Amino acid sequence: MDKSKNILSHEKDGQELIEKFPTSFFSHAEAIYHLQEAGIELKKTRVADWLESSRANVSQVIGRMQNSGLVSFGENLKLTDKGLCLAKIITRRHRITERFLSEVLDLPWNEVYEESSRWENILSPTTEKAMLKILGNPTTGPFGNPIPYSDYKEKEMYPLLDVESKKSYSIEKITEELKKDSSMIDFLQTHNMIPGSKVSIADAGEFSITITTDNNNYFGIDKFIAKRVFVV
């Protein structure tokens, strides 16, 4: 199956799933997908933490998702093929919307994530295609995360925490963990820690590192951030 037919097939399947299931399933499928992307163990407790929801509520929703054939779980949660399709369609729409809101509507980055979460549940395939055309068919969201079912080509990249000091790197991706926090995104944008910016490490301590972006002022970030900003 060629790429265009593959995308159309997933769009059709995804739209059918979106029309069939409640929006609570969307956020939970997407959360599991993001946890998998970030390499975090796929437990219901982790989903609850990610969604900032009660464990009882998450357990109830995931139980209903299991009954609907979207997830399976033994030791860890796992999206079925149907659940993965739903998660990818929602993530795709979220990341396309992020670009549209930030690049076309010029919405501040610290407002983009939350606003995109509202749009992703109601975006139609027609509107999605129109947005992609205006944006020039990007393969990542504005934070560098891949848009599912796009022409994205995986690059070899490394966490900022693991690269050498005194060398220049280019920021490629900011993970979903950091994106969820609007104050964190405001900090990163204020200090020009965004995809495409040059960054170098001046000094590394036990708990934090000192960096500079695009040869501007030096500032410190903790290792939690440095582990979740990827560079090439």
Write the layout of secondary structure elements.
Layout (H helix, E strand, L loop, with lengths): L2 H18 L2 H16 L5 H8 L3 H13 L3 E3 L3 E3 L1 H24 L4 H11 L5 H11 L22 E2 L8 E7 L1 H4 L2 H9 L7 E7 L3 E6 L4 E5 H4 L2 E3 L1
Antiparallel strand pairs: 1-2, 3-8, 4-5, 4-8, 5-6, 6-7
Summarize the structure.
The chain has 232 residues and is an alpha+beta fold. The protein is built from 10 helices and 8 strands.
Structure explained in plain terms:
Strands 3-8-4-5-6-7 form a six-stranded antiparallel sheet. A two-stranded antiparallel ribbon has the order 1-2. The longest helix is centred in the middle third of the chain and has 24 residues, at 81-104. The protein is globular. Helix 1 packs across helix 5 (81-104) and helix 6 crosses helix 9. The chain is built from ten helices and eight strands. Helix content is 51%, strand content 16%. It has helices spanning 3-20, 23-38, 44-51, 55-67, 81-104, 109-119, 125-135, 176-179, 182-190, 223-226, and strands spanning 71-73, 77-79, 158-159, 168-174, 198-204, 208-213, 218-222, 229-231. The two termini are 32 Å apart. The mean pLDDT is 91. The protein is α+β, with helices and mostly antiparallel strands and 232 residues long. A hairpin with a 4-residue loop joins strand 6 and strand 7.
